Amino acid sequence: MPMPSSDTITIAAGTVQGLHEGDLTVFRGIPYAAPPVGEHRFAPPQPVLPWTGIRPAHHAGPNAPQRTRAVPGLDATPLIGHGWSAGDDYLTLDVWCPAGARQALPVMVFIHGGGFVLGSKDAAVQSGQTFARDGILYVAINYRLGVDGFLPIPGVPTNLGLRDMIAALHWVRENIAAFGGDPANVTIFGESAGAMAIADLIASPLTKGLFRRAIVQSGHGAMTREVGVAQRLVKKLADMLGVTPDRAGFERVPPGERLLDALEKVSLPTARIDLRGADGREPVFGISRFIPVHGDDVLPVEPLAALRAGAGADVELLIGSNREEMNLYLVPTGVREKLGRLLSWFVLRKSQPRAWAVLKAYGMGNGKKPGHALTDAMSDLVFRWPARRFAEEHRGRTHVYDFEWGSPRYDGGLGASHGMELPFVFDSLATCTGEDGLCGTAPPQDLATRIHALWVRFARDGSLPWAPFDRETRIVRNLAAGDAVYEPVMPAAAFLP
């Protein structure tokens, strides 16, 4: 079989060689920062050492240490990747280039999700092939996760994972023109934890001028903690590992299985750790222990407060959520059907001080099963209403969507769950189709074609075929129905800032 032909491009650190795949050219595993090991492990991202000769950019390369978890009855590999691919040099990115002459193309930079503890740029659902096919220069990045990326260890710079993303965006600004991209027309987008991170980057003073547009899919800026609260997690992990709760202690535990064992243990619902703030709320509702913190130079204040002060006003924003986000967490496991009144209250009470009132507002006691009321309430509390709050506070042009197509999986119970929009956004339904696939056996290709085209259109020039959102008009686009409607304030509004 003949080898694919190659292409070389010279960037600031040296010359890289990509491969032609059909009409496209792909460069994989290009370093944007030095490997985060040794003296660089708990340091801000450091410059790449230049190389001589041609560096092959043919393989995905390693990713951040992580451990994936199975979802009953669901092939999650297309969404989160194959798990940890070990290696030191994982602060890397891929570039997918359109065919033909390349000059001043719109650029899209994707930041993967995974609860800040797993995932990679290489998950099949988010291949850059379709965006490059449609004239977008597509970039996807890896970043530090878990303890190394999002644990505010005393003596270590905070928010190292966010700092990695910022370093990658600087790389894009400095190098993307060599690939044919326009550094003045960059759209960053991401899903879940990747979207939460993007919301934080919009609010950060360190990202001014690095991107023009942002797409926040099932994310928002409310999932950050005060440093002092997050350091309870530092102490808990240090106790588990038998080390001091500081840089010297955690440097004694190399990235690997022992650290992942502790991360997994502290992430269990049974782990005895209180991460509620002074208001009695836990902003992540137990989904992930590891999230960004505010109160440093990356996020001096909470993101919503930063937006109110004008942060990110020059960024055009598309933000939205899926209609039934929490179904992914509570339907495949069977938890939604098993929960009674008391246990539903107990689950919610750990994160929300007015748990009984929330459950009643979402129909418990009015004929709705307790587990269904909890699932619906958490979809709004965790994802949907905070996204609307982010849209309300953003001072720049803002459009809001709601994704409402429901998967038939689990006898129709999965619905428009978390992650469901990804194969539609990327026009990659084949990766999530099948008996064990997220989308079932026959998802609608016409919907994927329409949604993908909206994302491409927004990245090209910021245009969208529905009116912007504000707190009075509340115009939201239903992506499956294709209509833009007034969306009433959700019941969750009474229980969140």
UniProtKB/TrEMBL annotation:
InterPro entries xrefs: AB_hydrolase_fold (IPR029058), CarbesteraseB (IPR002018), Carboxylesterase_B_AS (IPR019826), Lipase_GDXG_HIS_AS (IPR002168)
Chain ranges of the Carboxylesterase type B domain: 7-462
Pfam families found in the cross-reference section: COesterase
EC code: 3.1.1.-
Enzyme category, top tier: hydrolase
Keyword field: Hydrolase
Record bears the keyword Hydrolase: yes
Source taxon at top rank: Bacteria
Family, per entry: Belongs to the 'GDXG' lipolytic enzyme family. Belongs to the type-B carboxylesterase/lipase family.
Protein name: Carboxylic ester hydrolase
